[in-house]
Amino acid sequence: MKPLSRAVESMPRSGIRVIMDRAFSMPDCIRLEVGEPNFPTPSHVLEAADKAAREGKTRYTENPGIPELRSRIAEIFAADTGRTTKTDDVVVTTGAMAALYTTLMSITDPGDEVIVMSPSWPNYLMQMTLLGIQPVVVTTTEATRHVPTVEQLESAVSHRTKAVLINSPCNPTGAVINQAQMADILEFARRADIYVISDEVYDKIIYEGTHVSAASHDVDGRVVCIHSFSKTYSMTGWRVGYAVAPPEIAGLIRKCQEPTVSCVNAPAQYAALAALDGPQEIIGEMRDAYRERRDEARRILSSSGIPALEPGGAFYIWIDVSSSGRSDVAFAMDLVDKHQVAVVPGSTFGPGNEDRVRISLATAPDLLYEGMRRLIDETRS
Ligand code: PLP
């Protein structure tokens, strides 16, 4: 037999999935590894999908999404960022994952370089492997609260660099890029003449201050913003996200949809429109619940002498488990096997994170705190 795809074979599996597979076989496992809200999708969103399906909106839609959803997104995006945005600049995708993938596909050719941070969401590197992109990893540190510095970015650039991929608020650290830092990153991108792919799926889950979109500092059309309904409206399984891009890039992203997915599930697009048009209080309610859990989780950790950064956004805590004397993977495996608590090993998020694990605050509070108590016990065993 001829060899199969080297790219797919060489792609590492996400460490999140490896732990999840273990947890699936344990019915009573406390699941602190999953990054999805423990809130139901709002009922008016369910009703909109039901209505759309019953009205026969069950066919293929336009490749980039239904015009009414795209124009509503464009309107909101322009108001939020101040960047002129037309309906055609928006492409509705199968979750933010597909928006990221088709954006990378539209900007790069195999062999091109993209700057990416460590720690960061593992799917970035997985997607780059599939597309033949050469990742150039910049390791962020606690000293800068996990925001990359311009000096670090400058030293990662080569003549092959096409883009830098940023994520604020960040999964897994909760780091938030402020106005001045975003202005500096955009200034750097202009100097280096590279694109900025800005993953902003946690833009509404921010605890202090306000979210700064990369698009609000984009003066010459080099920023693609990636958004999602998954976390904001508790709609992970609906698989709706979108990219907002300068016209030329949006055209290519749109082009990628036809041969890959054709379009996003039609009733789910109507559900997403209902989410945007309906009451928005749910967003603040979920954020306040995560904040309360964040504060209690940090109190539990600090009273046990376990270091963890205070996340400024997103719904994760990045915990230092070096006191356990084990690697992140050995620690996470012991924790799930001995205490039935699933967490994600830090090395899943890139090199240099072998003393960390990530837990998700999007978990029912009683389970979250019980899981943390068992985690603390395991650091001492
Ligand atoms: N970007 C980041 C940083 C994420 O953490 C996730 C999901 O966990 C995604 C993108 C993907 O979101 P979606 O469910 O819209 O594909």
Write up what this structure looks like.
By secondary structure, this protein is α/β, with parallel strands linked by helices. The chain has 2 domains: 6-41 and 281-379, Aspartate Aminotransferase, domain 1 (Alpha-Beta Complex), CATH 3.90.1150.10; 43-277, Aspartate Aminotransferase, domain 2 (3-Layer(aba) Sandwich). It contains 13 helices and 12 strands. The protein has helices at 6-10, 15-24, 43-54, 67-81, 95-107, 123-131, 150-156, 179-192, 247-260, 266-277, 281-303, 328-339, 365-380, and strands at residues 30-31, 90-93, 113-118, 134-139, 161-167, 195-199, 223-228, 241-244, 316-320, 341-342, 344-345, 356-360. Strand 3, helix 6 (123-131) and strand 4 form a beta-alpha-beta unit. The longest helix is centred in the C-terminal third of the chain and has 23 residues, at 281-303. The protein starts with 5 loop residues before the first helix and ends with a helix. The mean pLDDT is 96.
Largest sheet: 7 strands, mixed
- Give the helix/strand class: alpha/beta
Total discrete domains: 2
CATH evolutionary superfamily of the largest domain: Type I PLP-dependent aspartate aminotransferase-like (Major domain)
Whole-number average pLDDT? 96
Residues in β-strands, percent: 5-15%
Level-2 CATH architecture of the largest domain? 3-Layer(aba) Sandwich
Bin the helical content: 40-55%
Oligomeric nature of the chains = single chain
Q: Any idea what the radius of gyration is?
A: 20 Å
N- to C-terminal distance: 49 Å
Please give the number of β-strands.
Answer: 12
Strand neighbour order, sheet with most strands? 2-8-7-6-5-3-4
CATH first level of the largest domain: Alpha Beta
Count up the helices. 13
**Bound ions, cofactors and other small molecules, one mention each:** pyridoxal-5'-phosphate
The global form is globular
Q: Low-confidence parts lasting 5 or more residues at pLDDT below 50?
A: none
CATH topology of the largest domain: Aspartate Aminotransferase, domain 2
How are helices and strands ordered from N to C? HHEHHEHEHEHEHEEEHHHEHEEEH
